[in-house]
Write a structure and sequence with these properties.
Elements (H helix, E strand, L loop, with lengths): L4 E6 L4 H21 L10 E6 L4 E4 L12 H6 L3 E4 L6 E4 L3 E7 L9 H17 L5 E2 L7 E3 L8 E12 L2 E9 L20 E3 L2 H5 L5 H15 L1
Parallel strand pairs: 1-2, 3-4, 9-11
Antiparallel strand pairs: 2-6, 3-5, 6-10, 7-8, 8-9, 9-10
Helix pairs in contact: 3-5
Length: about 230
Amino acid sequence: MKPRVGYQWMSGKSYQELWDLQTEIHQALIVSKRLNSNDPNYKPRHRLLFCEHSPVYTLGKSGSMDHLLLDQDQLNNGDIEFYKINRGGDITYHGPGQITGYPILDLEEFYTDVHRYVRSLEECVIKTISEYGLVGSRVPSYTGVWLEPDHTNNRYRKICAIGVHLSRWVSMHGFALNVNTDLSYFKHIVPCGIIDEDKDVTSIAAEVGENVAMEEVADVFKKYFQEIF
């Protein structure tokens, strides 16, 4: 039997509130697995949180401040927050029109393989965007999901960023899928620290030419998350 994962859509909360909530759930799961380590009937309470953040830039622990192209006054004037956080990866943007997903899983009930975990998240996204006629792919040396150059665009376009953190095999942070995202926010950072001239950022809406329903995309993702996890 596959592990059970509780799902929740979070709205109306700041980035700090969601980060605090993630941390609380993450730590509680670590404590719970330690206290129940000898109980053969123990089942971890896995969670998948979805949210749509207000505009915010987040910088991973391996990222460079040089990749934020705004100073504090410009951040204030642009009404956008900035946080240094404990996930992997560099700088990215979260905001309206983007589904940010936080799987908080005890991977010891799935598999203890970080590489496989990240590839599985990517596969969920690849299958999700395929339902909108988009062919997602992976680019060697980079995480996330990309669209390859084609007859309409000669660049690789990143449609989903992924950055995770694990402690005692319990995951937090996750992925950011651009659905109807205002892509102009990415012009004020070096997205994911990638400076290649043939790399860009995109969204489902930018590729299909119209906005799509966020709730619909979330439901599609959940379907494939259930299938893969």
